[in-house]
Each structure stands twice: as C-alpha cells, then as structure tokens.
Amino acid sequence: MSLALVQSRALMGLQASGVTVEVHLANGLPSFTLVGLADVEVKEARERVRSAIQNAGLAFPSNKRITVNLAPADLPKDSGRFDLPIAMGILAASGQIDAARLRGFEFAGELSLSGELRPVRGALAMSLALHLQAIQARMVLPPESAEEAALVPTAQVYRAKHLLDVVQQFLPEGASESTEPAGEGWTALQAQSMDMSVASLAGDLADVKGQAATKRALEIAAAGGHSLLLMGPPGSGKSMLAQRFASLLPCMTIQESLESAAIASLAGNFKLSQWGVRPTRHPHHTASAVALVGGGSPPRPGEISLAHNGVLFLDELPEFARSALESLREPLETGLITIARAARRAEFPARFQLIAAMNPCPCGYLGSKIKSCRCTPDQVSRYQGKLSGPLLDRIDLHVEVAALPSNELLRSPAGETSAQIRQRVTEARDRALKRQGKLNQALGAQDLAEHAALIDTTRQFLETAAARLGWSARSTHRTLKLARSVADLAGSGTIELTHVAEAMQYRRTLREHA
Hints:
Strand order of the largest sheet: 12-15-18-11-19
Number of strands: 19
CATH topology of the largest domain: Rossmann fold
Helix content: 25-40%
Structural class: alpha/beta
Number of domains: 2
Distance between the termini: 84 Å
Largest sheet: 5 strands, parallel
CATH superfamily of the largest domain: P-loop containing nucleotide triphosphate hydrolases
CATH class of the largest domain: Alpha Beta
C-alpha cells in the first residue's frame, strides 16, 4: 500500500488538537516533501527520519517520491514530536509494517540519527486532552514523556526507547522478526496513583521568628485565596515569609495537579518529583511582560500560568517594568490569560496567588525605627508611584513588615509550624467550598450579597470607613471578601463587626513620607 495514515497531536496552548500524518509513496523523481504548515524543526524531520530508518537496519524508500502531509493544513505544527509518526507512516506505506494495526494508536517522539527516541514537551497535555475528550486511544511515547502521560487516569501509554521497539509491535502477520529491539523494548505503563499528601517543598513558617501580625495575614490570604503585598525595610523577613507561603496551602487535588503538571509539561520543565507540589514561581524583576503572561509563536505559557494553582512571588515589586505589572491586572481578576495573535489565539489558566514584596522607599528605611531614611519626599513619591492605583486595588492585603530588633530575633521562640496553620486553612477553605463552591477571593457581587451579608450595624461601620478612606467599589468588595475569610477561620457562619474591623486593617494605602 503506497498510502498510510498515522495519528498524532499538535499543541496550541493547552489544546492538544489531533493531527493526521498522511504519507504517500509514488513513482517519479526521488524526493521527500513535507507540507502542512510545519515549523522549521518539523521540516528538519526529513533528515532525522531518513537516518533513523537506515541506521535501524530498515529500508528507506530512496527511489520513491515521498509526500508527507500534516493535516489539518491550517494548524501550526512545531517541535520534533512528529518524527516518530512520520517514520511509522513511511514504513507503513512501504509495506514494512502493517498499516491496519496502527489504528487506535497515537504516536509522538523525536528521533535521533541512530533511531533512539527522545522526550518531547507537552506529553501530559496530550494525554489530558484524550482524557477530557473521552478518546480511547493508545499513546506511544519516548521514555520520560511516557511516564508524564501515564499520570492521567484511564491513560493507555506505551513506552519505547528505540524505533525498532515500535516497529516490532506492528509487523505484518507472519513476518520474521529479524531485528532485536534495543534496550528494554516495548513497555506498557499503567496509570500511576501518586501520593498527594505533600503540600509543598517550601520551608516551614516556624523558621520565621516573631512577625505574628504578618503570619496572621498570610493565614488569611491562604484561607481565602487572596493576593498579598508585603512592605518593609531590608532584612525584615519579607522574602523568607513569602517563600514559605506555599507551605500553608492545602494539598492539591488530582485535577489541580493535572492542570499544573500539564502547563509545566508544555514549558518542557515538568519533573515527576514536582507532582502534587504547589508551584512557587519567583521571576527576577528584569522579566518582561511576555515572560510573565506568556507569548511567542506558537504561544508558550508565562510565569503566571506556570504558577497556576500555586504562588507567584514578585520580589522588589516596583523594580518590575510598568508594562509587566499592568499585564497582571486582568489575570488577577479572571484567573485566565488570553494570548491573541493575528492568525490564532491561545488561552492559558492563571489562577495564582500573588505574593509581592517591596521596600517603602528607594533606600528602604522609611518609617524604620532601626535606621533613618535618607530619601526625599519626591524620591519616595516617584518610587511608590511606579505601582498604579488599579494594580494596588486588585491586591487584597497590604501588610507592613517591621524589622525585628536583634534581641527579639535571638530570644523569640519558634512559632506555629506550617502544618498547624495549614490545618486551620484547610478547614476554612472547606467551609467556603461547602457554602458557595468557590474560594472567597472568587466571589462575585451576587455571591457577596448571598454569602457575605452584613447586619445593619456592621454594614454602617463598613460604609462609613469606606467613605472616609475614599475606597473604590472594588476595594469595598475586597474588604468584604477578606472579612468572609476571617469569619471562616473563626468558624463563624456570619460576618461580625470584629471580622470587618480586622479585614479593614489590611487595606491600607502606601505610607506617605514622614
């Protein structure tokens, strides 16, 4: 048979669309033509496939006119994932393997010149797409990629180290197996059941001495899924606190783990040791807007998507480019980032908790009792003015982290462990999810009216405070969400005056120069 069809998948965002690799062999001037909106690395597959087939001891049809079409033609294809399906298509079209036995299989893998299979990025996203679409297909993948794909429930994954390992499984009936598979050969992997008991690889909050008020703010942020801004002088412990925030979050569910792992797989940096661990991303302040939100051609996930279901820590917040910070405004509201290009658009999830840290002024010691500030009012105003009002409005908690005197630092006993706080956070989240089906940070206006109603005296107190402080409607709503989280931590079904009063303390604006 001179025509063969092999199934594979192309990645566009988290959407792993099906691709049919059509291979046709015809008489004529020998050539190898590859069409179907293939990127440069896909077109280079011609040389890799030719060498891999020949070095594996198989016959490459050098005397034929070879045409490979990657359908659909308008879907961009990138990376070396199509090497294996192209090679299988050529072998099936030339009669060296049984084309009919390829049905029900999907192939992906990069080939070395010797025929060894190399891992490809996005294997978990491909497997997850099959699971979500309820497609009963068996996947043939290289080592490492196969283990990723097997994390998805109901996945049917086969691992192969060499092209010959795959060819041996699809030989025509009665054919003699003259070539021996390389390495361990063909292995069927079962869907793995991973341990979900690990909440984070971050350090323990007990390592931080003192700072009881800031630890309370971290607990509230973790309970309600709120964003948090830490402001204080150098060495006060802002970075140390932020880096341990992930240890306060509950263990990830299977669905959350799959979503986070699929995004990491798209970026090509997923490791099995990261399974079930909430991600904490901390990009340098020189990161561009594209690095934060994602982009490129084809679109790749940025830091906010890699922090999906985890924590995005931005240290030295005012030092980030203004355009990069402003690009966070929409994802903070929607939990989704849409990357639009002229020909195509891609969507990535971005439900992350923003933990930001900054100094109050350029020298860092504004308001400090340990060292005097040497900045002028104009310098302080310009420095704090790098953060726009709309961005600050979207950060739920603004907390001042005071420097701890050395005598308190050395004499303070260890505080509560992350495990103790995480227990309370988990209970508070369970109350919120049971009541409203979502975390408090995600509550809309209608949800607040239903689940965060206030009695008259409490409502009057909040209205008076909002008017005096000049809060926007968003600030008032976010204070109400904070109060709902404080009430959940206290085990209260209703929001009391004390809960609102505590929540209001975390909506302070930046300090003016003293």
